[in-house]
Design goal:
binds ligand LXAUTJHC, 7-stranded parallel sheet, Rossmann fold, NagB/RpiA_transferase-like
């Protein structure tokens, strides 16, 4: 059985080297966007894995004031909460040179993602898509963005022809209510990266790519098997 041809994997012996390589690659994408269109748009994931990448990217010399930064998904908590993805981005990415970048949050302060959906959707609709780069992460359970196994709106979020840009998501293992860009929105990008670390995630990814056993149902498989945008996996141990 062969892996989908749309995926290339860049493996690194250390996570610092991975962070540097991806930061240089994404910065190059953003510079191209600035040179060709006068602006650029970047969507990044949260969680814990992107910290080193964010630190490297934040020091890249480019005209950050013209780079709009948003999230691929958010936990429905205020930025004062340690689990906020926006907090992570502010702390680790929007500093140094990148402090000048405008940030477009998905969290609106409404009581629920359903209540904030229209405002979040309007924020994404106002971006000049396609993205120049989207950087996804992945959990051990095969979730990416907030496409969680068992998610109440998973099928809708993964529908490649769906019209929603953003959707709420509730799932048993998500921790808190979520909001997520949908798959067709994430695929409106000039470059798509999947940043993963650790042996466990390497195995999850390999199984998901091949559709082996339970991994056939891992949401990340929808990203790995689509043919719209090539996926570059950046992996470190
Ligand atoms: O909850 C989330 O988890 C994933 C993976 O996070 P990590 O801590 O295992 O790196 C992340 O990609 C997603 O943006 C986040 O909301």
């Amino acid at each position: 059985m062969s892996a989908p041809a749309n995926v290339t994997t860049h493996s690194f012996t250390g996570c610092q080297a991975q962070a540097i390589a991806l930061a240089e690659r994404v910065a190059e994408r953003l510079r191209n966007g600035l040179a060709q269109r006068g602006q650029a748009v970047l969507a990044v994931s949260g969680g814990s894995t992107p910290k080193a990448f964010f630190e490297q990217l934040s020091r890249q010399a480019l005209d950050w004031a013209r780079v709009q930064v948003t999230l691929v998904d958010e936990r429905w908590v205020p930025e004062s909460d340690a689990r906020s993805n926006a907090r992570l981005v502010h702390t680790h990415l929007l500093q140094h040179a990148a402090a000048a970048a405008p940030f477009i949050p998905l969290y609106t302060g409404d009581a629920s993602p359903e209540a904030g959906l229209a405002r979040a959707e309007a924020r994404i609709a106002a971006l000049p898509l396609p993205f120049d780069a989207v950087v996804l992460g992945m959990g051990d359970d095969g979730h990416t963005a907030s496409f969680f196994p068992g998610g109440d709106r998973l099928a809708e979020a993964l529908d490649p022809d769906g019209s929603a840009r953003v959707l709420p998501m509730h799932a048993p293992d998500a921790g808190e209510p979520r909001i997520t860009l949908t798959l067709p929105t994430l695929l409106q990008t000039r470059a798509l990266y999947l940043l993963v670390a650790g042996e466990k995630k390497r195995d999850v990814l390999a199984d998901a790519r091949l559709g082996l056993g339970a991994a056939r149902d891992y949401p990340v498989r929808a990203v790995l098997t689509q043919q719209r945008v090539p996926v570059a996996v950046y992996w470190c141990p």
